[in-house]
Amino acid sequence: MGQVECYSGHTYAQEPRAVIWHDRRYPVAVVGARWRTPRGPAFRIETDTGERFELQYTEEADTWSICPLPGNDEPSSQAGASSTEVHKEDKEVPTR
Q: How large is the average pLDDT for residues 45-53?
């Protein structure tokens, strides 16, 4: 269901560059917020078409969690149910 393409300089997952969600690639236009959790880096982004996502990289599991934020074109009840964790090897694992 989803993937994250990111820039990696001195560390992996420094900055997301694109989100692939429901077979569509969304380039990141704005990284609105970034923070670090005990699991790894997290980001709130907006795409060049206005979709918004919260992304969390879990270093230990080597997975991304992708959560669409309210205001995207899809219904918000579906957005929360669509969250997934994605391995760098493009394998998908449901978070719930």
A: 96
